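## retry 2 of 3
previous attempt timed out at serialization; input unchanged, resubmitting
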Amino acid sequence: MSKLKRVALIADTFPPFRTSGAVQLRDLALEFLEQGYELTVLLPSSELNQVWRMEDFKGVNILRLRAPRAKGAGYLKRTLAEFMMPFSMKYALKKSPLKNAVWDAVIWYAPSIFHTPLVKYLKNKSGCKGYLIIRDIFPNWAVDLGLMNKGLAYAFFSLVANYQYQNADIIGVQSSGNLKYFKSWEKKIGKNLEVLENWLGQPSELPCSINLSQSLLSGREIFVYAGNMGVAQGLEILLELAEHLQRRKDIGFVFVGRGSECHRLQEIAANKRLNNTLFYDEIEPDEIPKLYEQCSVGLVCLHPKHKSCNIPGKFLTYIQNGLPVLANINPDNDLANLILKEKVGQVCETNQVAELERLAEDLLDQIHKDKGMPKRCLDLFECKFSVTNAVKKIVHSLSKSMV
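## retry succeeded, writing output
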Protein backbone atom coordinates (compact mmCIF):
# COMPACT_ATOMS: atom_id res chain seq x y z
CA MET A 1 0.00 0.00 0.00
CA SER A 2 1.31 3.43 -0.90
CA LYS A 3 1.32 6.49 1.34
CA LEU A 4 -1.84 7.52 -0.46
CA LYS A 5 -4.94 6.63 1.56
CA ARG A 6 -7.69 9.28 1.46
CA VAL A 7 -8.67 10.37 -2.04
CA ALA A 8 -11.16 12.97 -3.30
CA LEU A 9 -12.61 12.40 -6.77
CA ILE A 10 -14.34 15.41 -8.38
CA ALA A 11 -16.67 14.90 -11.33
CA ASP A 12 -19.96 16.15 -12.74
CA THR A 13 -21.45 12.76 -13.63
CA PHE A 14 -22.13 9.58 -11.68
CA PRO A 15 -25.04 7.14 -11.36
CA PRO A 16 -28.00 7.46 -11.61
CA PHE A 17 -26.79 9.08 -14.88
CA ARG A 18 -26.28 6.44 -17.58
CA THR A 19 -23.54 8.11 -19.61
CA SER A 20 -20.29 6.30 -20.36
CA GLY A 21 -18.54 8.79 -18.09
CA ALA A 22 -20.90 7.97 -15.21
CA VAL A 23 -20.27 4.25 -15.69
CA GLN A 24 -16.50 4.77 -15.82
CA LEU A 25 -16.49 6.84 -12.65
CA ARG A 26 -18.70 4.33 -10.86
CA ASP A 27 -16.30 1.51 -11.74
CA LEU A 28 -13.26 3.62 -10.84
CA ALA A 29 -14.69 4.53 -7.42
CA LEU A 30 -15.59 0.92 -6.60
CA GLU A 31 -12.13 -0.28 -7.65
CA PHE A 32 -10.42 2.30 -5.43
CA LEU A 33 -12.48 0.89 -2.57
CA GLU A 34 -11.63 -2.68 -3.59
CA GLN A 35 -7.91 -1.85 -3.51
CA GLY A 36 -8.18 -0.48 0.03
CA TYR A 37 -8.42 3.28 -0.45
CA GLU A 38 -10.89 5.62 1.19
CA LEU A 39 -12.54 7.47 -1.66
CA THR A 40 -15.05 10.32 -1.55
CA VAL A 41 -16.75 11.45 -4.76
CA LEU A 42 -17.71 15.15 -4.86
CA LEU A 43 -20.55 15.86 -7.27
CA PRO A 44 -22.61 18.94 -8.19
CA SER A 45 -26.37 18.60 -7.83
CA SER A 46 -29.04 21.10 -8.85
CA GLU A 47 -31.82 19.01 -7.31
CA LEU A 48 -30.89 19.30 -3.64
CA ASN A 49 -33.23 21.06 -1.23
CA GLN A 50 -30.39 21.36 1.26
CA VAL A 51 -26.84 22.59 0.61
CA TRP A 52 -25.26 19.11 0.74
CA ARG A 53 -26.20 15.46 0.98
CA MET A 54 -24.00 12.52 1.95
CA GLU A 55 -24.74 9.12 0.42
CA ASP A 56 -23.24 5.65 0.56
CA PHE A 57 -22.77 3.96 -2.81
CA LYS A 58 -21.74 0.35 -2.17
CA GLY A 59 -19.22 1.56 0.41
CA VAL A 60 -18.03 4.63 -1.50
CA ASN A 61 -18.74 8.02 0.09
CA ILE A 62 -20.72 10.31 -2.22
CA LEU A 63 -21.01 13.98 -1.27
CA ARG A 64 -23.52 15.82 -3.45
CA LEU A 65 -23.11 19.59 -3.31
CA ARG A 66 -25.72 22.06 -4.47
CA ALA A 67 -24.82 23.85 -7.70
CA PRO A 68 -26.67 25.52 -10.60
CA ARG A 69 -28.26 23.23 -13.19
CA ALA A 70 -25.97 22.80 -16.18
CA LYS A 71 -27.03 19.61 -17.97
CA GLY A 72 -29.94 20.12 -20.31
CA ALA A 73 -29.70 23.92 -20.18
CA GLY A 74 -29.15 26.15 -23.21
CA TYR A 75 -25.62 26.95 -24.40
CA LEU A 76 -25.22 30.26 -22.57
CA LYS A 77 -27.00 29.14 -19.40
CA ARG A 78 -24.98 25.95 -19.31
CA THR A 79 -21.71 27.83 -19.66
CA LEU A 80 -22.65 30.20 -16.85
CA ALA A 81 -23.84 27.31 -14.65
CA GLU A 82 -20.62 25.36 -15.21
CA PHE A 83 -18.53 28.46 -14.52
CA MET A 84 -20.35 28.93 -11.19
CA MET A 85 -20.35 25.20 -10.36
CA PRO A 86 -17.00 24.91 -8.52
CA PHE A 87 -17.66 28.04 -6.45
CA SER A 88 -21.10 26.77 -5.44
CA MET A 89 -19.61 23.36 -4.60
CA LYS A 90 -16.87 24.98 -2.53
CA TYR A 91 -19.46 26.97 -0.56
CA ALA A 92 -21.58 23.84 0.03
CA LEU A 93 -18.51 21.80 1.01
CA LYS A 94 -17.71 24.30 3.75
CA LYS A 95 -21.18 23.66 5.20
CA SER A 96 -20.80 19.86 5.06
CA PRO A 97 -19.33 17.37 7.56
CA LEU A 98 -16.23 17.18 5.33
CA LYS A 99 -15.40 20.87 5.64
CA ASN A 100 -12.20 20.07 7.55
CA ALA A 101 -11.26 16.92 5.63
CA VAL A 102 -7.66 16.53 4.51
CA TRP A 103 -6.88 14.50 1.41
CA ASP A 104 -3.79 12.63 0.27
CA ALA A 105 -4.69 13.30 -3.37
CA VAL A 106 -7.31 15.00 -5.51
CA ILE A 107 -8.41 13.42 -8.78
CA TRP A 108 -10.72 15.17 -11.21
CA TYR A 109 -12.41 14.14 -14.42
CA ALA A 110 -12.78 16.31 -17.54
CA PRO A 111 -15.20 17.00 -19.03
CA SER A 112 -16.11 19.35 -17.36
CA ILE A 113 -13.20 21.78 -17.74
CA PHE A 114 -14.55 24.03 -14.95
CA HIS A 115 -13.61 22.08 -11.78
CA THR A 116 -10.31 23.84 -11.16
CA PRO A 117 -11.27 26.41 -8.47
CA LEU A 118 -12.54 23.59 -6.25
CA VAL A 119 -9.54 21.42 -7.09
CA LYS A 120 -7.13 24.23 -6.23
CA TYR A 121 -8.91 24.87 -2.93
CA LEU A 122 -8.68 21.21 -1.89
CA LYS A 123 -5.06 20.85 -3.01
CA ASN A 124 -3.96 23.96 -1.11
CA LYS A 125 -5.93 22.99 2.00
CA SER A 126 -4.48 19.47 2.05
CA GLY A 127 -1.04 20.18 0.60
CA CYS A 128 -1.53 17.30 -1.83
CA LYS A 129 -1.07 16.51 -5.51
CA GLY A 130 -3.74 16.51 -8.21
CA TYR A 131 -4.37 14.07 -11.07
CA LEU A 132 -6.41 15.29 -14.05
CA ILE A 133 -8.15 12.57 -16.05
CA ILE A 134 -8.88 14.22 -19.38
CA ARG A 135 -11.08 12.40 -21.89
CA ASP A 136 -11.43 15.02 -24.64
CA ILE A 137 -9.42 18.04 -25.71
CA PHE A 138 -11.97 20.84 -25.42
CA PRO A 139 -12.44 23.38 -26.98
CA ASN A 140 -10.13 22.05 -29.73
CA TRP A 141 -12.46 19.28 -30.84
CA ALA A 142 -15.41 21.70 -31.09
CA VAL A 143 -13.37 23.88 -33.48
CA ASP A 144 -12.35 20.81 -35.52
CA LEU A 145 -16.01 19.88 -35.99
CA GLY A 146 -17.04 23.43 -36.93
CA LEU A 147 -19.17 23.84 -33.80
CA MET A 148 -17.08 26.82 -32.69
CA ASN A 149 -14.74 29.27 -34.39
CA LYS A 150 -11.62 30.77 -32.88
CA GLY A 151 -13.37 33.83 -31.55
CA LEU A 152 -14.23 35.07 -28.06
CA ALA A 153 -15.92 31.85 -26.96
CA TYR A 154 -12.89 29.80 -27.99
CA ALA A 155 -10.55 32.20 -26.18
CA PHE A 156 -12.66 31.96 -23.02
CA PHE A 157 -12.85 28.15 -23.01
CA SER A 158 -9.14 27.89 -23.82
CA LEU A 159 -8.35 30.09 -20.84
CA VAL A 160 -10.43 27.86 -18.58
CA ALA A 161 -8.87 24.69 -19.99
CA ASN A 162 -5.32 26.03 -19.60
CA TYR A 163 -6.10 26.99 -16.01
CA GLN A 164 -6.96 23.39 -15.20
CA TYR A 165 -3.77 22.17 -16.87
CA GLN A 166 -1.73 24.63 -14.79
CA ASN A 167 -3.20 23.22 -11.58
CA ALA A 168 -2.65 19.56 -12.46
CA ASP A 169 0.47 17.75 -11.29
CA ILE A 170 -0.31 14.74 -13.47
CA ILE A 171 -2.44 14.55 -16.59
CA GLY A 172 -3.71 11.23 -17.89
CA VAL A 173 -4.87 11.30 -21.52
CA GLN A 174 -6.78 8.43 -23.08
CA SER A 175 -4.50 7.79 -26.06
CA SER A 176 -0.87 8.29 -27.04
CA GLY A 177 -2.04 10.45 -29.96
CA ASN A 178 -3.17 13.08 -27.44
CA LEU A 179 0.23 13.45 -25.80
CA LYS A 180 1.29 16.03 -28.40
CA TYR A 181 -1.24 18.55 -27.04
CA PHE A 182 0.62 18.70 -23.72
CA LYS A 183 4.30 18.51 -24.66
CA SER A 184 5.04 22.10 -23.60
CA TRP A 185 3.07 21.59 -20.36
CA GLU A 186 5.09 18.46 -19.53
CA LYS A 187 8.38 20.39 -19.72
CA LYS A 188 7.43 22.37 -16.62
CA ILE A 189 9.04 21.26 -13.36
CA GLY A 190 6.97 18.81 -11.35
CA LYS A 191 4.56 17.97 -14.17
CA ASN A 192 3.98 14.42 -15.40
CA LEU A 193 2.09 13.35 -18.52
CA GLU A 194 0.96 9.79 -19.22
CA VAL A 195 -1.53 7.68 -21.12
CA LEU A 196 -4.38 6.51 -18.92
CA GLU A 197 -6.52 4.27 -21.09
CA ASN A 198 -10.27 4.21 -20.62
CA TRP A 199 -11.51 1.46 -18.32
CA LEU A 200 -14.51 -0.57 -17.23
CA GLY A 201 -15.32 -2.87 -14.34
CA GLN A 202 -16.71 -6.37 -14.65
CA PRO A 203 -19.86 -6.73 -16.81
CA SER A 204 -23.12 -7.44 -15.02
CA GLU A 205 -25.54 -10.32 -15.46
CA LEU A 206 -28.65 -8.11 -15.45
CA PRO A 207 -31.27 -9.17 -18.04
CA CYS A 208 -31.82 -6.86 -21.01
CA SER A 209 -35.17 -5.21 -21.66
CA ILE A 210 -34.52 -5.43 -25.42
CA ASN A 211 -35.28 -8.82 -26.96
CA LEU A 212 -34.27 -8.80 -30.62
CA SER A 213 -35.65 -12.30 -31.21
CA GLN A 214 -39.10 -10.74 -30.88
CA SER A 215 -38.35 -7.88 -33.28
CA LEU A 216 -38.49 -7.61 -37.06
CA LEU A 217 -34.73 -8.26 -37.07
CA SER A 218 -35.10 -11.72 -35.53
CA GLY A 219 -32.59 -14.21 -36.91
CA ARG A 220 -30.33 -11.59 -38.49
CA GLU A 221 -26.68 -10.76 -37.90
CA ILE A 222 -26.95 -7.56 -35.83
CA PHE A 223 -24.66 -4.56 -36.08
CA VAL A 224 -25.25 -2.64 -32.84
CA TYR A 225 -24.49 0.94 -31.80
CA ALA A 226 -25.06 1.68 -28.12
CA GLY A 227 -24.21 5.09 -26.72
CA ASN A 228 -24.46 8.81 -27.27
CA MET A 229 -25.88 10.01 -30.58
CA GLY A 230 -24.48 13.50 -30.96
CA VAL A 231 -22.72 15.68 -33.50
CA ALA A 232 -19.29 14.39 -32.48
CA GLN A 233 -20.20 10.85 -33.54
CA GLY A 234 -21.15 11.60 -37.17
CA LEU A 235 -23.64 8.72 -37.31
CA GLU A 236 -25.34 9.50 -40.62
CA ILE A 237 -22.89 7.29 -42.49
CA LEU A 238 -24.11 4.28 -40.49
CA LEU A 239 -27.61 4.87 -41.82
CA GLU A 240 -26.13 5.08 -45.32
CA LEU A 241 -24.46 1.75 -44.62
CA ALA A 242 -27.78 0.28 -43.50
CA GLU A 243 -29.37 1.55 -46.71
CA HIS A 244 -26.66 -0.08 -48.85
CA LEU A 245 -27.06 -3.37 -46.99
CA GLN A 246 -30.84 -3.60 -47.28
CA ARG A 247 -30.16 -6.13 -50.05
CA ARG A 248 -28.78 -8.46 -47.35
CA LYS A 249 -31.78 -9.98 -45.57
CA ASP A 250 -29.45 -11.58 -43.02
CA ILE A 251 -28.14 -8.24 -41.63
CA GLY A 252 -29.79 -5.74 -39.28
CA PHE A 253 -28.83 -2.54 -37.49
CA VAL A 254 -29.76 -1.58 -33.94
CA PHE A 255 -29.19 1.85 -32.35
CA VAL A 256 -29.61 2.19 -28.59
CA GLY A 257 -29.15 5.44 -26.68
CA ARG A 258 -29.92 9.11 -26.63
CA GLY A 259 -28.37 12.38 -27.74
CA SER A 260 -28.88 15.61 -29.63
CA GLU A 261 -28.96 13.82 -33.02
CA CYS A 262 -31.17 10.88 -32.01
CA HIS A 263 -34.48 12.27 -33.28
CA ARG A 264 -32.96 13.52 -36.53
CA LEU A 265 -31.37 10.12 -37.19
CA GLN A 266 -34.70 8.38 -36.65
CA GLU A 267 -36.30 10.76 -39.16
CA ILE A 268 -33.56 9.96 -41.70
CA ALA A 269 -34.14 6.23 -41.21
CA ALA A 270 -37.89 6.72 -41.68
CA ASN A 271 -37.40 8.80 -44.82
CA LYS A 272 -35.08 6.15 -46.25
CA ARG A 273 -37.63 3.47 -45.29
CA LEU A 274 -34.95 1.36 -43.69
CA ASN A 275 -36.61 -1.95 -42.88
CA ASN A 276 -33.37 -3.32 -41.45
CA THR A 277 -32.90 -0.69 -38.75
CA LEU A 278 -34.35 -0.30 -35.25
CA PHE A 279 -33.92 2.47 -32.66
CA TYR A 280 -34.33 1.92 -28.92
CA ASP A 281 -34.25 4.37 -26.04
CA GLU A 282 -31.33 4.38 -23.63
CA ILE A 283 -31.21 1.36 -21.31
CA GLU A 284 -29.46 0.76 -18.00
CA PRO A 285 -25.69 0.30 -18.53
CA ASP A 286 -25.85 -3.03 -16.70
CA GLU A 287 -28.27 -4.33 -19.36
CA ILE A 288 -25.72 -3.80 -22.12
CA PRO A 289 -23.87 -7.17 -21.85
CA LYS A 290 -27.10 -9.13 -22.44
CA LEU A 291 -27.90 -6.85 -25.39
CA TYR A 292 -24.53 -7.64 -26.96
CA GLU A 293 -25.12 -11.37 -26.57
CA GLN A 294 -27.81 -10.91 -29.23
CA CYS A 295 -25.46 -9.11 -31.65
CA SER A 296 -22.57 -9.92 -33.98
CA VAL A 297 -20.69 -6.61 -34.46
CA GLY A 298 -20.24 -3.44 -32.41
CA LEU A 299 -20.25 -0.13 -34.30
CA VAL A 300 -17.89 2.76 -33.47
CA CYS A 301 -18.34 6.06 -35.28
CA LEU A 302 -16.46 9.35 -34.89
CA HIS A 303 -16.96 12.50 -36.93
CA PRO A 304 -14.32 12.59 -39.69
CA LYS A 305 -13.31 16.16 -38.80
CA HIS A 306 -11.92 15.12 -35.43
CA LYS A 307 -8.19 15.72 -35.17
CA SER A 308 -7.58 14.35 -31.69
CA CYS A 309 -7.47 10.65 -30.82
CA ASN A 310 -10.38 9.05 -29.06
CA ILE A 311 -10.98 5.57 -27.64
CA PRO A 312 -14.74 5.66 -27.02
CA GLY A 313 -16.18 3.91 -24.01
CA LYS A 314 -18.50 1.91 -26.27
CA PHE A 315 -15.43 0.31 -27.88
CA LEU A 316 -14.50 -1.02 -24.45
CA THR A 317 -17.97 -2.40 -23.84
CA TYR A 318 -17.87 -4.23 -27.17
CA ILE A 319 -14.53 -5.97 -26.70
CA GLN A 320 -15.24 -6.63 -23.01
CA ASN A 321 -18.16 -8.74 -24.20
CA GLY A 322 -16.22 -10.43 -27.00
CA LEU A 323 -17.88 -8.41 -29.77
CA PRO A 324 -15.76 -7.57 -32.85
CA VAL A 325 -15.82 -3.96 -34.01
CA LEU A 326 -16.56 -2.09 -37.23
CA ALA A 327 -15.21 1.46 -36.88
CA ASN A 328 -15.69 4.54 -39.06
CA ILE A 329 -13.27 7.07 -37.57
CA ASN A 330 -11.12 10.09 -38.33
CA PRO A 331 -7.70 9.51 -39.97
CA ASP A 332 -4.62 9.06 -37.78
CA ASN A 333 -6.64 7.94 -34.78
CA ASP A 334 -4.81 5.52 -32.47
CA LEU A 335 -7.93 3.37 -32.38
CA ALA A 336 -7.39 2.25 -35.98
CA ASN A 337 -3.95 0.83 -35.25
CA LEU A 338 -5.22 -0.85 -32.10
CA ILE A 339 -8.14 -2.61 -33.83
CA LEU A 340 -6.06 -3.78 -36.79
CA LYS A 341 -2.98 -4.78 -34.78
CA GLU A 342 -5.03 -6.82 -32.31
CA LYS A 343 -7.24 -8.27 -35.09
CA VAL A 344 -10.50 -7.41 -33.35
CA GLY A 345 -12.34 -5.79 -36.25
CA GLN A 346 -12.21 -3.58 -39.33
CA VAL A 347 -11.60 0.18 -39.68
CA CYS A 348 -12.67 2.75 -42.27
CA GLU A 349 -10.76 6.05 -42.21
CA THR A 350 -12.06 7.51 -45.48
CA ASN A 351 -15.67 8.12 -44.36
CA GLN A 352 -16.79 6.55 -47.66
CA VAL A 353 -19.85 4.33 -47.41
CA ALA A 354 -18.69 2.05 -50.24
CA GLU A 355 -15.54 1.14 -48.33
CA LEU A 356 -17.49 0.79 -45.08
CA GLU A 357 -19.91 -1.57 -46.83
CA ARG A 358 -17.06 -3.74 -48.09
CA LEU A 359 -15.44 -3.84 -44.66
CA ALA A 360 -18.75 -4.73 -42.98
CA GLU A 361 -19.22 -7.75 -45.22
CA ASP A 362 -15.56 -8.73 -44.89
CA LEU A 363 -15.87 -8.58 -41.11
CA LEU A 364 -18.90 -10.87 -41.06
CA ASP A 365 -17.03 -13.38 -43.22
CA GLN A 366 -14.04 -13.12 -40.91
CA ILE A 367 -16.18 -13.69 -37.81
CA HIS A 368 -17.59 -16.88 -39.32
CA LYS A 369 -14.16 -18.21 -40.28
CA ASP A 370 -12.04 -16.94 -37.35
CA LYS A 371 -13.45 -18.42 -34.16
CA GLY A 372 -10.62 -16.88 -32.12
CA MET A 373 -11.81 -13.30 -32.62
CA PRO A 374 -14.09 -13.09 -29.52
CA LYS A 375 -11.26 -14.31 -27.30
CA ARG A 376 -8.87 -11.74 -28.78
CA CYS A 377 -11.41 -9.07 -27.92
CA LEU A 378 -11.59 -10.28 -24.31
CA ASP A 379 -7.80 -10.56 -24.02
CA LEU A 380 -7.29 -7.03 -25.35
CA PHE A 381 -9.73 -5.66 -22.80
CA GLU A 382 -8.06 -7.41 -19.88
CA CYS A 383 -4.61 -6.32 -21.03
CA LYS A 384 -5.28 -2.62 -21.61
CA PHE A 385 -8.65 -1.50 -20.30
CA SER A 386 -9.40 -3.15 -16.96
CA VAL A 387 -10.30 -0.80 -14.10
CA THR A 388 -7.80 -2.63 -11.89
CA ASN A 389 -4.95 -1.46 -14.13
CA ALA A 390 -6.35 2.08 -14.26
CA VAL A 391 -6.41 2.49 -10.47
CA LYS A 392 -2.92 1.00 -10.12
CA LYS A 393 -1.55 3.45 -12.70
CA ILE A 394 -3.19 6.47 -11.04
CA VAL A 395 -1.96 5.44 -7.59
CA HIS A 396 1.55 4.75 -8.87
CA SER A 397 1.82 8.17 -10.51
CA LEU A 398 0.43 10.00 -7.48
CA SER A 399 2.72 8.07 -5.12
CA LYS A 400 5.78 8.99 -7.21
CA SER A 401 4.78 12.64 -7.12
CA MET A 402 4.53 12.53 -3.32
CA VAL A 403 8.18 11.50 -2.87
